[in-house]
Specification:
Layout lengths: L38 H15 L12 H8 L5 H9 L2 H6 L6 H12 L7 H24 L2 H6 L17 H4 L5 H10 L6 H10 L34 H4 L4
Helix pairs in contact: 2-3, 5-6
Length: 246
């Protein structure tokens, strides 16, 4: 039996009321499956989902989920199922889930899947307990099957940022890992000229002590290195050849 979601009182945020802002460059563009009339529109929708779920930090050629893309292009799955597949993909797990705490995963998931930040610490704690009890997959299902998600996006709309929050744009405020992981990566990175490199080299060297052994020359036989000259070579000296006469 799973633990029910803890109760928390939502704070007043503008994604809970009708929009009143004047349209501008910050107005999100809505990608809906019913608005796609050709493959170009579906491709744009797919990349919008990648930007929303994976963020700009994880959009790589190797991160593409071609199987999910094919199913969506053939209308075999809905946009909601496509988003669910991206959030549960091995790429997302490797680059995001394994590098963050449950609290930060709640912050990332609410911003990318529900389009809003957490109301308060109580909501963060409540959803982090869901991750601990249901696992990441169960947590994603709880968000995508929630009344809030269905009301806001339904089955055919790519999630988008529904309110303003600190640190826009949204796809850059939630990198794949938090500050503590970044600092850990920086501390472990090899730096040219760093004194720690020489310290590690010195620690890795094995020092062998040289023992002094005295040697006695009494019993050393010195071989005879001389040799007998065989015959003699006559030499001729000519003064005139070396010193010209005037």
């Amino acid at each position: 039996m799973s633990i029910p979601l803890l109760e928390y009182k939502p704070s007043s945020q503008n994604q809970r009321v009708d929009g009143y802002e004047v349209p501008g460059e910050d107005t999100p563009y809505l990608y809906r499956l019913e608005d796609c009339v050709d493959q170009t529109d579906i491709t744009n929708l797919i990349w919008a989902a990648y930007r929303q779920v994976f963020s700009e930090h994880v959009i790589l050629q190797s991160s593409r989920q071609t199987n999910l893309e094919s199913q969506l292009k053939n209308r075999a799955i809905t946009v909601r199922e496509f988003v669910r597949g991206l959030a549960k993909s091995e790429t997302f797990r490797t680059l995001v889930i394994e590098k963050n705490s449950n609290y930060r995963l709640v912050d990332i998931a609410l911003k990318r899947l529900l389009g809003r930040s957490a109301y308060n610490n109580e909501e963060t704690i409540a959803w982090s307990i869901k991750i601990a009890t249901l696992g990441w997959g169960g947590f994603v299902d709880a968000l995508l099957d929630s009344e809030e998600y269905i009301t806001a996006f339904g089955d055919t709309t790519v999630p988008y940022q529904r309110c303003r929050y600190k640190g826009r744009p949204f796809n850059l405020v939630t990198p794949s890992y938090a500050d503590y992981w970044r600092d850990k990566e920086e501390a472990g990175r090899y730096k040219w000229g760093d004194i720690n490199n020489f310290r590690e080299l010195a620690r890795s060297l094995t020092i062998k002590t040289v023992e002094h052994k005295p040697v006695s020359t009494e019993n050393i036989a010195i071989p005879d290195m001389t040799r007998d000259l065989v015959g003699t070579t006559p030499a001729s000296i000519s003064l005139s050849s070396g010193f010209p006469l005037r």
